[in-house]
Amino acid sequence: MLYRNLGKSGLPVSALSLGSWLTFGKQIDNGVAEELMSIAYDQGVNFFDNAEIYARGRSETVMGDILKKKKWDRDSYIVSSKVFFGYLGKDAKPTQKGLSRKHVVEACEQALKRLQLDYLDLYFCHRPDKSVPIEETVWTMHNLIQQGKILYWGTSEWSAQEIMEAHLVARANHLIGPTMEQPQYNMLVRQKVEVEYAQVYSTVGLGTTIWSPLASGVLTGKYNQGFVEDTRLSILGMDWLKESALQKENIQRAQALAAFAKELGLSLPVLAIAWCLKNPNVSTVILGASKSEQLSENFGALDALRLLTPDVMEKIETILHNRPAPPEY
Ligand code: NDP
């Protein structure tokens, strides 16, 4: 395993980590979830990602039960949760969601209970909340750190400006600002990580825990010959994801990439994950898997990194033809 510090913090996080969205407590049974975490931990993964909203809290409960059963040393792994959507999702009452002090504190307590932990290593604001003053959220996160309930806090899908606002408030009040951001990043979605955050990496030392490295499975090539049932895109209620994931240009890119991966002697998911890892501003790539074979295969990305020479990266650019325009200063 490769370890990278989470941004400018001193926390070493495994370059590949494991997340539980749509899988734990939902698509897979608890035995498979345990297998996935065991494979990951044995491979040197030290970060397990979660959120209050995942399977309406069940994902945290399942992960908590597994951690309890496995009895791994608490200081050998990092666990996250995220607050914003509320564990009741669409059914959440006004005080049961968002980034108010009330909800952030209560959601933290609830996550700790479900995960059966004394503290969260990472706590993310799952989305920005325009209805709450940024001062309130920054103070709340700082206080949770002071209370030992969380160790680092961060954001997910915030704009560069919102992240900088949080840092300005933190600086002005001698508080701890956000350490990391959790954005989507993969061969098909590049703008935020490659352009929008370009300055934030150096100005505040932002770390990134990136999500959907395989674009929900599209970058495995499994949809290249048509739709396949029994995958996340066929889960009831996932029509919105299916629609955005299976756009024609995504499939065309996946088809061309699959052929190129074959030339390199790699599978497409391995190539796609290694490509994410190649970006030095990515602290960790969060993997998702519904089967243990998928996860084992995806760890091949660490070895594949050495094949991604500048020449190969340029060939990939030609295939993707979606390099975002560089930032204008
Ligand atoms: P991916 O884009 O990598 O998708 C993972 C899914 O792709 C798997 O569940 C599986 O789905 C399929 N898959 C993975 N590997 C293979 C393989 N080798 N062969 C065939 N199919 C494969 O990542 P996720 O979208 O799951 O994101 C990873 C994590 O990021 C999440 O678990 C979560 O922790 C986090 N996240 C955070 C978000 C945020 O807003 N902060 C949003 C989304 C995710 P299947 O078998 O069903 O096809």
Order of strands, widest sheet: 3-4-5-6-7-8-9-10
Q: Using the alpha-carbon principal axes, give the shape.
A: globular
What is the number of strand segments? 10
Q: So how many helices?
A: 14
Radius of gyration over alpha carbons?
Answer: 19 Å
> Which compounds are bound in this model?
NADPH dihydro-nicotinamide-adenine-dinucleotide phosphate
The largest sheet is:
8 strands, parallel, barrel
Structure description:
The chain is an alpha/beta fold and 329 residues long. Helix content is 43%, strand content 12%. It has an 8-stranded parallel barrel, surrounded by 4 helices. It has a two-stranded antiparallel sheet with strand order 1-2. The radius of gyration is 19 Å and the shape is globular. The protein starts with a strand and ends in a 9-residue tail after the last helix. The model has no long low-confidence stretch (mean pLDDT 97). NADPH dihydro-nicotinamide-adenine-dinucleotide phosphate binds next to β10 and α12.
Please provide a brief summary of the model.
The protein is an alpha/beta fold. The chain has 14 helices and ten strands. NADPH dihydro-nicotinamide-adenine-dinucleotide phosphate binds next to strand 10 and helix 12.
